[in-house]
């Protein structure tokens, strides 16, 4: 046997092995692609065809080679219609694939196979089969019968229709799927071209080049499935729906691997591009912060869930409302998850601003009177329940009216901000600090006795006295007076405590200012640090 034919047989056999591997790989791969069955049929029948052809080439007699030709036709007629069905699923035309259409597409291949195996009785497929002359080893040639033309026309028609469908879908399919389209187009076009060259008699020794070409296309398919997520799913959610949505949409399979996304999602998530297809969702959410990652880890695929998360996007923090829902096939079979991302950053920031306006003093940035009273009442109830101590401090800026009259209200405001800045250096975590009104401030100290609160007051008083306020018009010396009270009775109300603290503060004002006075059981005394 000639070395050329021997090499050809080896390559064809390798092509058959690759087709078998491709069929097995596609069959056992977890996927939601409805056309996977047609893809497996196409790959398996390709394997039958190529192995049959390899054995035909190794045959030595016309009778032996004719038998292997019959074996080839157990697979070859079914490749083209199976490929067309697979492409129809891929481009979203699965609604057209009914049982009647499947039967219509496969009936001619079945008749072709029957015709080949019974050709000796009617000669409708081959008029005659004979061995060629002047070849390095025995090679078969045929004279076409009428059904051969029917079979050839049907095969080319299926392949051409599949190619046209892919080209028609080109501009409608998002860029991430275009690599898959190119792969399938190559897988369809190369065998078609090879068949055309074979029929035109333009191949070496008139041998069929298609089995060798299939080794290339099978390798290409395997590479595309492994690296590009090909046939993971022809989009569970359709492109026209995806791209018309302003909210981001992600689709995952049952293993939480990314299957699809829309343009809005790519704008919302850094690093989301075609290379992310087939990667775990957790990897995509990793750089978005702990809230986003926690969502991925905690979500149950079978449950609908809605959550708002802080989302790190570059140097800024956004807020997304994430809604997930299961994607189910007919019969309730779980296919994956659809995750919708809604940008609620503007609403969250507005709510925070409204909350700040409702709870914070706009000038000083500390709690306003209303919110201070609300929080302090809660701490007072908690202290009474736990039998723990709680103290209240009132402080007032000394000679504040003189600052306003002498320097102007602008510098009066700066004096108030200066007081807050100094106090914040000594306020502990858990203490409540608020503006009580005008130039008066109030501090609620949980788990703090009267003696501890008085010592804190003295520290703050001394710091205010020593901290000079520097302005454009020069330095301004500011001092403050303090009144302190402790809640000694579990039945004491916040209003009663504030009233006692106010009396103590008045004593500080009346006795020279810049001092700390304590109110204890209606007795007011000057605090003298040790």
UniProtKB/TrEMBL annotation:
Matches recorded under CDD domains: GGDEF (cd01949)
Mark the transmembrane ranges. 6-27, 34-54, 74-93, 105-126, 146-168, 180-200, 212-236
Enumerate the PROSITE patterns for this protein.
GGDEF
Alphabetized, the UniProt keywords read:
Membrane, Transmembrane, Transmembrane helix
What is one Pfam family matched by this protein?
PAS_4
**Which residues are in the GGDEF domain?**
388-521
In terms of NCBIfam families, this protein maps to: GGDEF
PANTHER family registered for this protein in UniProt: DIGUANYLATE CYCLASE DGCM-RELATED (PTHR45138:SF9), REGULATORY COMPONENTS OF SENSORY TRANSDUCTION SYSTEM (PTHR45138)
Kindly provide the name given to this protein in its UniProt entry.
Answer: GGDEF domain-containing protein
């Amino acid at each position: 046997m000639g070395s050329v034919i021997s090499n050809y047989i080896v390559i064809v056999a390798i092509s058959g092995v690759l087709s078998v591997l491709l069929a097995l790989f596609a069959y056992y791969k977890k996927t939601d692609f409805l056309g996977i069955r047609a893809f497996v049929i196409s790959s398996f029948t390709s394997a039958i065809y190529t192995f049959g052809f390899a054995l035909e080439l190794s045959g030595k007699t016309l009778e032996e080679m004719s038998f292997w030709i019959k074996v080839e036709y157990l697979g070859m007629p079914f490749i083209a219609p199976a490929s067309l069905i697979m492409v129809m699923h891929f481009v979203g035309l699965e609604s057209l694939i009914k049982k009647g259409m499947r039967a219509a597409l496969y009936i001619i291949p079945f008749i072709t196979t029957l015709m080949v195996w019974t050709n000796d009785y009617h000669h409708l497929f081959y008029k005659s089969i004979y061995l060629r002359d002047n070849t390095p080893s025995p090679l078969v040639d045929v004279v076409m019968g009428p059904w051969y033309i029917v079979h050839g026309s049907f095969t080319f028609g299926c392949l051409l229709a599949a190619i046209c469908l892919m080209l028609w879908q080109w501009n409608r399919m998002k860029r991430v799927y275009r690599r898959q389209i190119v792969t399938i187009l190559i897988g369809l076009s190369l065998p078609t071209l090879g068949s055309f060259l074979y029929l035109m008699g333009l191949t070496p020794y008139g041998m069929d080049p298609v089995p060798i070409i299939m080794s290339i296309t099978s390798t290409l398919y395997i590479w595309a499935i492994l690296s590009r997520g090909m046939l993971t799913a022809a989009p569970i959610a359709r492109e026209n729906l995806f791209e018309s949505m302003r909210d981001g949409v992600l689709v995952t399979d049952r293993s939480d691997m990314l299957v699809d996304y829309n343009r809005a999602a790519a704008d919302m998530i850094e690093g989301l591009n075609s290379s992310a297809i087939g990667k775990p969702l957790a990897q995509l959410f990793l750089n978005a912060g702990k809230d986003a990652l926690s969502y991925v880890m905690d979500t149950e695929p079978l449950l609908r869930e809605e959550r708002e998360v802080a989302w790190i996007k570059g140097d800024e923090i956004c807020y997304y409302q994430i809604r997930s829902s299961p994607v189910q096939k007919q019969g309730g079979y779980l296919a994956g998850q659809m995750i919708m991302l809604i940008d609620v950053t503007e609403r969250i920031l507005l709510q925070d601003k409204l909350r700040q306006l409702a709870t914070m003093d706009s000038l000083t940035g500390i709690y306003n009177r209303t919110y201070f009273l609300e929080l302090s009442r809660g701490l007072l109830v908690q202290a009474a329940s736990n039998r723990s101590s709680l103290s209240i401090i009132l402080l007032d800026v000394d000679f504040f009216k003189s600052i306003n009259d002498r320097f102007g209200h602008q510098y009066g405001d700066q004096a108030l901000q200066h007081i807050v800045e100094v106090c914040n250096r000594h306020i502990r975590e858990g203490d409540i600090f608020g503006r009580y009104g005008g130039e008066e401030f109030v501090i609620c100290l949980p788990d703090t006795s009267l003696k501890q609160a008085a010592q804190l007051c003295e520290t703050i008083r001394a710091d205010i006295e020593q901290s000079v306020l520097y302005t454009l018009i020069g330095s301004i010396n500011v001092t403050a007076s303090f009144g302190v009270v402790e809640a000694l009775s579990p039945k004491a109300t916040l209003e009663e405590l504030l009233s006692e603290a106010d009396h103590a503060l008045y004593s500080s004002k009346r006795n020279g200012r810049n001092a700390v006075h304590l109110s204890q059981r209606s007795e007011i005394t000057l605090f003298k640090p040790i």
